[in-house]
């Protein structure tokens, strides 16, 4: 597996954000509320709560992958998939801004996607840098 030596700061930022977006919900019933009050009503009933737990636990697992600099591609794909899904299900209808000119918009998710891609492709995205198995 190829190590991403020059991405430490970006990986640490992802770790902090993913953990802070998931761990508090474990202890304050936020994950269950997300499943019951949002996902179930968005058409995922009766799987809203298990899906919410899967999403939040994937944040923890992906954060650990980024922290340990292992399985970066898999963690990146999972993270980006969840972020894009969140954009379309929640944030896009709120507009661009998270705060200031609006609320709960897409700007933060877009930044996280770009940071995740930067970690996945530390040498940039070229014709020969596609996602492939790393040795």
Number of strands: 0
Q: Strand fraction band?
A: under 5%
**Could you tell me how far the N terminus lies from the C terminus, measured between alpha carbons in angstroms?**
4 Å
Instruction: State the helix count.
Output: 6
**Mean pLDDT figure:** 91
Helical fraction equals 55-70%
How would you classify the quaternary structure? single chain
Descriptors for this entry?
135 residues, globular, 0% strand
Task: Write a compact overview of the structure shown.
By secondary structure, the protein is mainly α.
Task: Provide an overview of this structure.
This protein has 135 residues and is mostly helical. Helix content is 65%, strand content 0%. It has six helices and no strands. Helix 4 packs across helix 5 (72-91). The longest helix is centred in the middle third of the chain and has 21 residues, at 48-68. It is globular and about 40 Å long. The model has no long low-confidence stretch (mean pLDDT 91).
Topology:
Elements: H1 8-20, H2 23-27, H3 30-44, H4 48-68, H5 72-91, H6 107-120
């Amino acid at each position: 597996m190829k190590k991403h030596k020059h991405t430490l700061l970006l990986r640490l930022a992802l770790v902090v954000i993913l953990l802070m977006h998931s761990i508090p919900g474990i202890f304050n019933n936020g994950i269950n509320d997300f499943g019951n009050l949002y996902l179930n009503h968005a058409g995922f009933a009766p799987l809203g709560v298990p899906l919410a737990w899967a999403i939040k636990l994937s944040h923890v697992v992906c954060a650990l992958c980024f922290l340990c600099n292992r399985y970066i591609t898999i963690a990146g794909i999972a993270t980006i998939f969840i972020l894009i899904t969140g954009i379309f299900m929640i944030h896009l209808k709120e507009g661009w801004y998270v705060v200031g000119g609006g609320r709960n918009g897409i700007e933060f998710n877009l930044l996280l996607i770009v940071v995740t891609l930067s970690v996945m492709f530390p040498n940039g995205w070229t014709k020969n840098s596609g996602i492939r198995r790393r040795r």
